[in-house]
Amino acid sequence: MKKNFKIFYSLLLMSSMMIGMYGCQKLLDRKPLTATLEDLNQGGLEGQIYGLYSNLRNSAGFTTIPWLAVNDFRSDDSEKGSDPSDGAEWVAPFDNFAYVKDLWATNQYWDDHYALINLANTAIQTADSLKLTDASSMINVAEAKFLRAYSYFDLVRTYGDIPKIDFRIYNANQANIAKSPASAIYALIDADLTFASTYLPIAWGNQYPGRLTSGAAKTLLAKAHLFRGNWSQALALSNSVMSSGTYALYNSYYGIFKDAGENCSESIFEIQAYVSPNGSVDNGTGYATCMGVRASTASGWNLGWGWDTPTDKLVGAYEAGDVRKQSTILFSGQSDDPATGGYGRVLPGYVTDPGGFLPRKYWNKKIYADPAYRTSTGMSDNPRWINKRVLRYADVVLMAAECMNETGNGAGAVGLVNSIRSRAGLANISFVNQAQLRAAIKQERRVELALEGERFFDLVRWGDAVSVLGPLGYTNKCRFYPLPQPAIDKSGGKLIQNPEW
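Request: output the structure for the sequence above.
Response:
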């Protein structure tokens, strides 16, 4: 299946070399692009948009350890992982909530998100300055606005009040501005995603796998409303996605995360990655490499860096018979379970000695790569071809159920919850009352979306973070991370630290 995406991935790679590239249609008909951005035709705008996708794929703040630290380590379901001595400085801020104001992870997270925002602003300004209003250009602008909103949604949930830069930057001083309130950031997110949902197509077909759609825009906008407790707005958007006929729950849970499940019926948005079968073409990402099983090379299980590992609490959260448990977690010393996506291999046993075979009891199975493909590519410990799943249909179903329950229609919402449970091999539940179904929805979100970057922010928006994460060191001020100190230092007093920090 991967080979069908080679052309598009290659274009994304080339577009990262900036604006001298072309779109992938009518390639031979286009003259060289040697003019300034203001002189570019629509084909040049499309080249900038491909550059946005490439930037997203290659940025650590979206695909590697900085993203994992902010979005996953801080939950009760995962921890830093790897050898105890590897990256020990990450344990205190992300596992134990002793936040650090100047740390590579959060500095990179901040910088990479604003870098993508800057590229999106440049593309939007280019289209505006050239007065490009044709259908293709409007799609390109919609893609840029989606990615700007995606970046800002990450930032506003993580930091709270932040600078709102919605204009093109010509020199660094223009980016040196004060924070805007979170409400202003959300207003921009709402506007960008509303525009994107209007102009993006429903689907692209096989020609552009992973390219943004109106369904992706509506889904992200629903999540932004859900985070603020805007139940009616989030429900309307979720219903629109569900009634579109474009998406459906995939037939097996573990299958979503296999190579053949990429861009499947459940996929709404994935960050695309590609490595050719012989490894000669590498348009990949470090997402899966960060989390692969970490062991000695001699053991045959040195599959990655071993970060972001499941916790005992996550393992204990599953009901008996829930197929998602074995589909999500690899257990040291046990079979990888071919019935839930394994390859008939047995992991070495867990040892506490950092020099032993496996330094953790559990590993993320959602990024467990095919051993045959590892061998053919020559990337046994670097599975760069695995897509990062960002938005999927099961999340939309659970968002709709939560919104229905919170607006007094729990009896109608329970059917949506049961559709998720049925695929997991679990019996249906009945609606008793709002509190009972609310607890059931929280449970389903936890195990359905485990290790996908949702749990920490769910706990915060539910008001459950203090009770659940408090024993780990969390207090209410930990809902927002302090702004990176280097950014404050460079601002000359314009950028002020979060008041609680």
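Residues 282-367 form one domain.
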